[in-house]
Write a structure and sequence with these properties.
4 helices; 157 residues; mainly alpha
């Protein structure tokens, strides 16, 4: 009989110790969860700002792509006809324009050589392309889109 009382007392003590340990672990889990959610919210705030900037660039790119597609539709239907060239295509370009064009072209070639481009790098590249004049902007966008369509460059516009 004394043995049964001793065993039940020990069981009661073990249950109490386990309950205290569970409450302590629950408190630690809650603390870790709150710290993780705070750090996650800080991390999420930063990409939201980048996403807003990229979405503006995406809208501009969509507009430019629509213009390009419309101009392609107006092109002659035969392949034998040469692309029209006017003398005013490159008149008035300054050295800074040429260096910007060269920088964008080198950036596109670099990313093609790597085979991929991150969302942030794409946003930076789109911003550089947006600074170019219309004809060069169209040419660089065409080169970028062709590389992506051909599978030479993996990324998102």
């Amino acid at each position: 009989m004394n043995l049964l009382k001793l065993i039940s007392t020990l069981q009661g003590i073990v249950i109490i110790v386990l309950c205290v340990a569970i409450f302590q672990l629950t408190g630690k889990v809650d603390l870790l969860y709150s710290q993780q959610s705070q750090s996650a919210s800080l991390k999420l705030d930063q990409p939201k700002n980048n996403a807003a900037q990229v979405s503006v660039s995406n809208q501009q790119l969509r507009l430019l792509l629509r213009e390009e597609l419309l101009s392609i539709r107006d092109w002659p239907r035969t392949i034998d006809q040469p692309v029209p060239f006017t003398a005013t295509d490159h008149v008035g370009e300054t050295d800074s324009d040429q260096s910007a064009i060269l920088a964008v072209d080198e950036s596109i070639e670099y990313h093609i050589s790597i085979g991929s481009i991150s969302v942030q790098e794409m946003g930076n590249l789109q911003a550089e392309i947006a600074r170019l004049d219309t004809s060069n902007r169209k040419a660089m966008l065409k080169k970028l889109v062709q590389a992506m369509n051909d599978g030479r460059l993996d990324g998102y516009l």
